[in-house]
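SAMPLE LOG
Freezer: B-3
Tube label: C17
Construct: single chain, 336 aa
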Amino acid sequence: MRIEYSQEMLDEINNNVDLIGYASQTLDLVKRGNDYFTHCPKHEDKTPSLSFNPEANYYYCFSCGRHGQIINFLKDFENLSFSEAVKKASALANLDVSKMCFSNTIAFLRKYEQIQQSKVRECTHRILDQHEYDKYKKEPITEWLTEGISQSVMDKYDIRIDNFQNRIVYPVYDIQSNLINIKGRTRYPNFKALRIPKYINYYSVGVMDYFQGLNFTLQDVKKKNEIIIFESIKSVMKAEGWGYCNCASAEKHTLTREQIELLAALRVNIVFAYDTDVNYYNNDVRQNIDKLKQLTNVYIIRDPKQLLGGPEAKNAPVDMGQAIWDELYAHRKKVI
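STRUCTURE (predicted):
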C-alpha cells in the first residue's frame, strides 16, 4: 500500500533542502540578477532557460515549463518516482520520512498529482468552427481606412463587422492557427457615456497563452529574429502597413506566465511598444521584462520628446504616423 503524506509534510521536506546547493552539484549555474540559470538537460537549450530562485527555493524552465522544488526536481531530472523522490528529499532534509507518515489506506500519489495539477493553469481553449466567424460581414471599415490601415492588411487579419452590436470584429487564433475566440471593438465614439465596453470577447478567454496576430506574423518574426509587442491588433496592422510585419498584440501591458513562456520559446529579440500611459518601471511590467532579459535581448520604445503627446494622451507608438514611429523604433532602448 502507498504511504500518504500531508501537504504540510511535503512542504517541510521541500523547504528544508537547499535546491540551488543540490542542483549545483551536477549543473553549472550562472547568477544573473537575483536568479541562477543553466541549460535545461531535458531539451535542446541553446540559451540557458532553466532558472533557480534562491528566495523561493524554486526552479522554473522558461522553455519546457518544468518547475517546482526539490521533490519535483528529483522527479524531473533524476527520473525518480514520486515515492522515491520523497524518500531521497527527506534524507537530504535530514527528516525521518517514516515518522511523517500518518496513513497508508489511500494512495496519496493520486491526490498529490491532483493538488499539483490544480496549481497549473489550464491553457486549453475551445476550438471554434470557422462558421462561427463567417456570420459576420466583410465590408469596408471607413474609420480604420481613414486612419491609414489599408484594406489589404485588414483582409489579411480578416477584420469584419458585427452589425447587430455595431462592433468591428476580428478572429483570435492560437499559435497553431486554431480559432479560439472572436473579439469585438465598439464603433460607438461615445461608448463611455453609453456605458458600453470598448472591447468584448465573444467567448470565454481562459488563459492568455497567445499573442493576437502572431499566427499571421510568426514567419516574419523568425526571419527578422525580432518580435514587436503592441497592446492592440490595430497597432499591429498600422505597423504592418509600413513594412513592420514582425509584430503581435499582447492585448494588454502585463504578460501572463504562459505568454512569457511563449516568448522565451521563440528565441528572438523582443521590442515592447506599449501605449504612452504605460510606465515600463512599474513593478508588474518590470517583472516581465526582468524575466525575459535573462534569455534574450529586450528593448523598449520610449518617447522622451513626447512626440506622442505624453502619458495623458494614451497614444500607441504608431498613432502619430509612420515618421514618428520610425524615429521611436530607431531609438529603441535595450534593457540592461
